[in-house]
């Protein structure tokens, strides 16, 4: 039979491939042809033919014909794959292409889906059931003419025992899909649906209770589906909870959580349900009841620990944590008498004491929130209530952060335990102030003094100390001197993990070392010795030395020659390039404190270490494959040079020749050669532009001799390769040189040269979407022109096409790119304000631009806000609207707004109202009355929810 089936598929393949090579999707395909495509996709062993089938079926799903053919395939039930494809197609079409259907066909689609769902049996594949139920759930939300979908489905499907499972699935999915980003129901429709759900809730509860009783004598699958459904209805507040403690479903949840025999899947569902109950607004009496009931789960937690059922243990931990989050503000409401709910933290801390660190990690967000709230309130009496809990937390973290006793070397930075320790580090830094960093440090020091302390407990204590060391007052003289002395006397026989953490602790004590200069020499000797180790300690020594260089800049100047030698020997140390760059940064900060003659000599030497290998690469012949991060990668050396130039900031007056100017001028020919040789490599170009940027920022206007050759080379290379980093570098030049009159024409010529290749790239299909970095950097460049030389820019012929391009870019949903576009509009419009008396010649130019383009600008901004942009991007739009209001008259602004609002669809494809005339008028009036961008932002967010 299998051979005959394979033969059948091969015959289908030949026929289907022949047909698709002859047809286009403009012609309606037959059901058989689509079925043959499905067979090819799932059964053909030829990857090329499978790919062809996949692409063709993808196009088919987008076509109008897929509605009827998917329906036919579901009726025919030929095999699993065709049924799944059909169900998935139906769901996809309803979610994304519902507007293709005329309203007259909505009822027939609904009836067809209900018929298919009515034929589901217990043996039907889960994936098919989910897709069909999701399709019907989405249809019920989109179809405005279906007034009582929940009650209708209950009436039609509840009498059929075999439909219990799919009906529960649909009832679960409807509330879940209300906020689907695909459906874009809008606030009005969601409110309407929510009222439908509230009205249907009693019937739904009655049905769920019936399903629960049936499941007691039938199967766990139904009970699981029942509780999942209850959970979703509770989560959206569709079920009133006043009597929830006595509700049979709530009681069943507690029963399942209390029983040792509950299966893991049911236990997970019961946990979800309990968390949903806790996340709703509960009256005080019910909150007390549920608090007491959850406290009674403590024995069940201990039982799960005893039976080593880690899944259940994590579920209980989650419940206890969500319980504390539900009572979060009650716990903090009084600084006199602690609220009863503070006992919930004891349950959480029991879980933090579990040996598996993944259990403790569940609680971390709770501790973050608690520490942030206590820090903001700054109430010592209130904070004292939580001090014992944080002390217990730190004790538990000390135990959890301990390595295995048989660990021989250092931890692998990429394993899960290292990731956990990084999270512990962040948490300790957040909560330490509650008990006091000094007290925490002392507590760990006393642990180090305990007799019989193992290496792993020693390392963990040092690890905790490392994370609070920065916050200890620098003049502490009781404990830290002993700790530093002990670290400096560590021997090679000490476990390497202890030595590693000790070195990291020294780095965190940099402020204390700066305040105790008598220890500096010994610390530097110790770190230099560690830096030369080949066992992994060099990385810790590099980090610690970087911190000490940053904190002890003035006191480290006498060590500059030793540091220059370190800079020249970086590649002899067992450290990666990022750590080498960090060391160069620390050394450069000290360079800035040197006298002028020493500075130039030392910097020239350090720069030479980076440029000589670069020069060799330039001379080495044609470019071969660049191995990222290797010594043959030019970016490897450019990044190092960047670190030196960026962080060397000597105090030089504007009249004084910058001590590094000569170095920069001497370096320019090599930089130019790098740009020519590696012009196709965007990564190398970005790094090189960054190097130039820091160089120019360092010497500022004294770099004017480099501007012309740099611009010429940039324009030439940008025309060829469109690297957006050249646009960004151009904005740096504008920032530094646009206030020099003789440079303005050259800078405008640069902008003009950039415009043609930029617009050519952005005007192709999806050009804006595919090149967000170019959009970001181009409009950043234009904004710099407006900031630095507004009048020449506004008087040029370039401003109109740039403004038109910005109008098109309004809809781009890339955060940085869109922000730059909005910033451009704001910066330009500011010069047209009625109260702007700076450069009054700019005002009429901006007013003219605003009057010519105001209507299009508002139209695009409103359209983008409603259909394209994320909610967090709307404050930028609000700023533009506010600036435009200050330029045009109130009558003009109101007219622009009304035109834009009239262009929006009043009804969705499902037939329901998106925005009423009252809501449109309210938005318009709010924007017109607003005196600050914040009010416009609130209005925009409220308004756009009507369409989302």
From TrEMBL:
Organism superkingdom: Eukaryota
GO cellular component: cytoplasm; nuclear envelope
GO molecular function: small GTPase binding
Main location as per UniProt: cytoplasm
Keyword RNA-binding: no
Annotated ranges, domain Importin N-terminal: 53-119
A GO BP entry: protein import into nucleus
InterPro entries recorded: ARM-like, ARM-type_fold, Exportin-1/Importin-b-like, Importin-beta_N, Importin_beta-like_NTR, TPR_TNPO3_IPO13_2nd, TPR_TNPO3_IPO13_3rd, TPR_TNPO3_IPO13_4th
Keywords, alphabetical: Acetylation, Cytoplasm, Nucleus, Phosphoprotein, Protein transport, Transport
Subunit-structure text: Interacts with (GTP-bound) Ran. Interacts with (phosphorylated) SFRS1 and SFRS2; leading to their nuclear import. Interacts with NUP62. Interacts with RBM4. Interacts with CPSF6, promoting its nuclear import.
Purpose: Importin, which transports target proteins into the nucleus. Specifically mediates the nuclear import of splicing factor serine/arginine (SR) proteins, such as RBM4, SFRS1 and SFRS2, by recognizing phosphorylated SR domains. Also mediates the nuclear import of serine/arginine (SR) protein CPSF6, independently of CPSF6 phosphorylation. The nuclear import process is regulated by the small GTPase Ran that partitions between cytoplasm and nucleus in the predominantly GDP- and GTP-bound form, respectively.
PANTHER family, sorted: TRANSPORTIN 3 AND IMPORTIN 13 (PTHR12363), TRANSPORTIN-3 (PTHR12363:SF42)
Protein name listed in UniProt: Transportin-3
Protein species of origin: Glossina morsitans morsitans
């Amino acid at each position: 039979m299998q051979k005959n089936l394979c033969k059948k598929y091969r015959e289908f393949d030949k026929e289907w491939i022949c047909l698709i090579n002859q047809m286009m999707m403009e012609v309606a395909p037959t059901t058989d042809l689509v079925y043959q495509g499905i067979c090819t996709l799932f059964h053909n062993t030829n990857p090329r033919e499978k790919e062809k089938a996949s692409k063709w079926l993808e196009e088919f799903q987008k076509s109008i014909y897929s509605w009827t053919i998917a329906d036919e395939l579901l009726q025919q039930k030929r095999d699993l794959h065709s049924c799944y494809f059909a169900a998935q197609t139906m769901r996809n079409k309803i979610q994304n292409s519902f507007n293709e259907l005329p309203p007259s066909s909505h009822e027939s689609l609904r009836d067809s889906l209900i018929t298919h769902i009515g034929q589901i049996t217990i043996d039907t594949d889960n994936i098919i059931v989910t897709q069909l139920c999701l399709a019907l759930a989405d249809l019920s939300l989109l179809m405005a003419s279906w007034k009582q979908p929940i009650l209708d489905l209950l009436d039609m499907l509840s009498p059929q025992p075999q439909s219990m499972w799919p009906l529960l699935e649909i009832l679960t999915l409807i509330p879940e899909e209300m906020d689907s980003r695909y459906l874009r129901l809008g606030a009005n429709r969601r409110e309407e649906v929510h009222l439908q759900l509230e009205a249907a809730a009693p019937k739904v509860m009655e049905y769920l209770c019936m399903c629960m009783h049936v499941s007691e004598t039938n199967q766990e699958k139904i009970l699981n589906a029942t509780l999942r459904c209850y959970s979703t209805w509770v989560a959206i507040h569709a079920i009133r909870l006043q009597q929830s403690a006595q509700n049979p479903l709530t009681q069943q949840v507690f029963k399942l959580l209390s029983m040792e025999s509950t299966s893991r899947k049911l236990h997970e569902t019961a946990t979800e349900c309990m968390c949903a109950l806790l996340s709703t607004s509960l009256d005080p009496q019910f909150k007390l009841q549920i608090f007491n009931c959850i406290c009674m789960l403590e024995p069940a937690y201990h039982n799960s620990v005893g039976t080593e059922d880690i899944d259940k243990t994590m579920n209980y931990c989650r419940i206890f944590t969500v319980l504390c989050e539900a009572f979060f503000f009650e716990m903090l409401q009084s600084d006199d008498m602690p609220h009863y709910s503070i006992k919930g933290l004891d349950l959480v801390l029991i879980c933090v004491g579990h040996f598996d660190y993944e259990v403790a990690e569940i609680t971390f967000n709770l501790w973050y929130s608690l520490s942030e709230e206590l820090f903001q309130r700054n109430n010592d009496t209130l904070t004292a209530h939580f001090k014992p809990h944080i002390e217990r937390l730190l004790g538990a973290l000390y135990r959890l952060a301990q390595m295995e006793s048989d660990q021989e070397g250092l931890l692998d930075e990429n394993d899960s335990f290292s990731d956990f320790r990084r999270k512990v580090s962040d948490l300790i830094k957040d909560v330490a102030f509650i008990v006091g960093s000094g007290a925490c440090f002392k507590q760990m020091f006393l642990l180090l003094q305990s007799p019989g302390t193992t290496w792993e407990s020693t390392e963990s204590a040092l690890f905790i100390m490392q994370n609070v060391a920065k916050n200890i007052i620098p003049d502490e003289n009781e404990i830290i001197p002993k700790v530093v002395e002990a670290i400096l006397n560590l021997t090679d026989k000490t476990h390497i993990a202890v030595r590693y953490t000790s070195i990291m602790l020294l780095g965190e004590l940099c402020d204390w070392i700066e305040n105790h200069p008598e220890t500096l020499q010994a610390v530097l000797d110790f770190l230099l010795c560690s830096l030369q180790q080949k066992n992994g300690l060099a990385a810790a020594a590099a980090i610690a030395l970087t911190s000490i260089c940053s904190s002890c800049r003035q006191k480290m100047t006498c060590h500059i020659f030793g540091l220059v030698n370190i800079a020249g020997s970086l590649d002899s140390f067992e450290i990666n390039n990022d750590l080498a760059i960090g060391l160069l940064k620390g050394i450069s900060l000290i360079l800035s404190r040197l006298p002028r003659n020493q500075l130039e000599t030392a910097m020239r030497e350090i720069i030479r270490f980076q440029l000589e290998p670069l020069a060799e690469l330039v001379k080495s012949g044609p470019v071969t494959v660049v191995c990222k991060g290797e010594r043959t990668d030019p970016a490897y050396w450019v990044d190092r040079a960047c670190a030196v130039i960026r962080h060397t900031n000597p105090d030089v007056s504007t009249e004084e020749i910058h001590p590094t100017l000569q170095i920069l001028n001497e370096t320019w020919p090599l930089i130019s050669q790098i740009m020519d040789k590696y012009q196709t490599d965007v990564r190398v170009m970005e790094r090189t532009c960054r190097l130039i940027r820091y160089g120019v920022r360092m010497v500022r206007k004294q770099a004017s001799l480099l501007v012309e050759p740099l611009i010429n080379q940039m324009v030439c290379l940008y025309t060829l390769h469109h690297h957006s980093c050249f646009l960004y570098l151009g904005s740096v030049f504008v920032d530094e040189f646009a206030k020099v009159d003789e440079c303005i024409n050259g800078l405008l010529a640069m902008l003009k040269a950039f415009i043609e290749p930029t617009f050519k790239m952005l005007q192709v299909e999806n050009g804006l979407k595919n090149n967000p970095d170019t959009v970001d950097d181009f409009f950043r460049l234009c904004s710099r022109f407006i900031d630095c030389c507004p009048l020449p820019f506004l008087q040029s012929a370039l401003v109109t096409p740039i403004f038109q391009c910005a109008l098109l870019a309004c809809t781009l949903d890339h955060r940085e790119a869109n922000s730059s576009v909005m910033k451009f509009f704001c910066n330009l419009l500011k010069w047209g304000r009625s109260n702007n008396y700076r450069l009054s010649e700019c005002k009429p130019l901006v007013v003219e631009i605003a009057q010519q383009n105001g209507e299009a600008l508002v139209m695009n901004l409103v359209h983008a806000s409603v259909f394209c942009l994320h909610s967090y991007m709307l404050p930028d739009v609000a700023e533009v609207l506010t600036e435009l209001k200050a330029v045009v008259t109130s009558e003009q602004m109101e007219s622009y707004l009304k035109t834009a609002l009239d262009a929006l669809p009043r009804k969705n494809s499902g037939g329901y109202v998106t925005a009423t005339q009252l809501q449109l008028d309210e938005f318009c009036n709010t924007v017109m009355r607003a005196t600050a961008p914040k009010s416009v932002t609130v209005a925009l967010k409220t308004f756009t929810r009507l369409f989302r």
